[in-house]
Amino acid sequence: MDEEYALLPRTGKTPRGADFCLRLDNDCMEPWIRRGELVYVDRDESPEEMQPGIFWYDGRVLCRQWCEDSTGTLWLLCANPKRESENLSIAPAEKAACLCLGRVLLKKPLPMPFYYG
Known about the structure:
- Strands 1-2-7-3-4-5-6 form a seven-stranded antiparallel β-sheet, with no helix packed on it.
- The chain has one domain (20-104): Umud Fragment, subunit A.
- The chain has no helices and seven strands.
- The protein is mostly beta strands.
- 0% of the residues lie in helices and 32% in strands.
């Protein structure tokens, strides 16, 4: 996590429960979360299945929806169907290498990506 960062003051727009925020540098979560938008994260809460979280995996910080299939495989899913090729499947034996950094705070839940399931 050698990324640059800046401390931002809390404002009236900071959601209750936010511990930190990140600016998304890609369009993997569009149209619900836009490239360049700040996402606020509650590090004490894990996201519910199919809801977005911030994950540390393979040296990258990712904002993705997640689910686990019947085989125990963890899926980190892009909400944007144009980025389906960037979905990650993590085998049960490798799940310990994926760290959930917290739940993305949104006003309403995201739908399951239509291409999944």
